[in-house]
Amino acid sequence: MKNMIHTQYELVKQSREILLDYCAGISPKDFTAENSTFGRGSIRNLLVHTGNTYEFWIGEQALQKVKVPTPYHAIPAVNELRLFYKDIDMLMEEFLNRYLPDFSKAITVRKKGETENIRPLQLFTHVITHEFHHKGQVLSLSRHLGYIPVDTDIIR
Question: What positions does the entry give for a divalent metal cation binding (predicted)?
Fold first, then answer.
């Protein structure tokens, strides 16, 4: 299972890199343009929100690292976003090294003010599926702005 989970996260990172390369071709104005019909407002905000989810569930909850979520405005462009995700990748590496030996053993997390026991596999699945959900929104928003979305599927 250990190799499979690492391989799966590598696939997530490869897909993310394709998305970030695509976003590098979006004008800075469009990258941060607020659109109220999309949940987080802009392409940048959606991508930072996705990273915030890793920060919260993996960094704060699983690894007990106290961290203020990265604010949207702290990431003005794709270059900073790449650095942000390198930090996320380091969190994930630490998480996988700590919990992969027994990915089914529950850990205690705080959720909506309550404690709950969640398996590391659930946390891993939650953050990567959350990223893919918002990746779809990023591509839809870019289409709305007049760009032609790139194929970011795992199987292209």
Answer: 49, 130, 134
